[in-house]
Amino acid sequence: MTDIKPILNFLQCETPDAWVRWALANEPLLLLDHANCEKKAASTALTLMYRYVGDFEMMHKMSRLAREELRHYEQVMSLMQKRDIAYGQISPSRYASELRKPIRTHEPGRYVDTLIVGGIIEARSCERFAKLAPHLDEELQGFYLSLLKSEARHFQDYLKLARKAAGGESIDARVEEFLALERSLIESPDDTFRFHSGVPQAA
After folding, report:
1. 12 and 182 in contact (C-beta within 8 Å)?
2. Its pTM surpasses 0.85
3. Most buried residue, 27, 57, 143, 165, by most Cβ within 10 Å?
4. Helix boundaries (H) for the chain
């Protein structure tokens, strides 16, 4: 199993057990939103490649990331088909939109912050795969554990690119600001279950 200690040390909190129980009670919705998250992750990578042309390291890493995320998307869809889970339209969680609100509007601040947020989302996704895996059936457990290596690498890639984009200035304060916001989103009540939602309101 991939060592995710660097991710646990990076994030300010672990996923609450109340969310894990919520996820297990909503497995079809978990897989549907997981598929949407993989699709969105690929889209984010492609957007960066279009918006910030010229950074060859970033474009190479985002190209690889987009391919991997789309492959994961295909794998989730296959699992859904196998389990007769319909693919319908659902609203996104508040998580990503709230996490992106503090992103600066000027460059290179916008670029740096976007990369930081990308890294945090990948880190949380990896942590949740690991948290869920022990409670899942053998097929789904194996799939989620197989995702850990790539998600952990994506997290590192995003932060490395953010430090590079900052041009020698420390990004630590920005990272901590986004991590504090992320923790509040993970630990606070949500009325709708999603892969990145907080805890159920009744918890």
Report:
1. yes
2. yes
3. 165
4. 5-10, 17-24, 27-51, 56-82, 94-100, 109-132, 138-165, 172-187
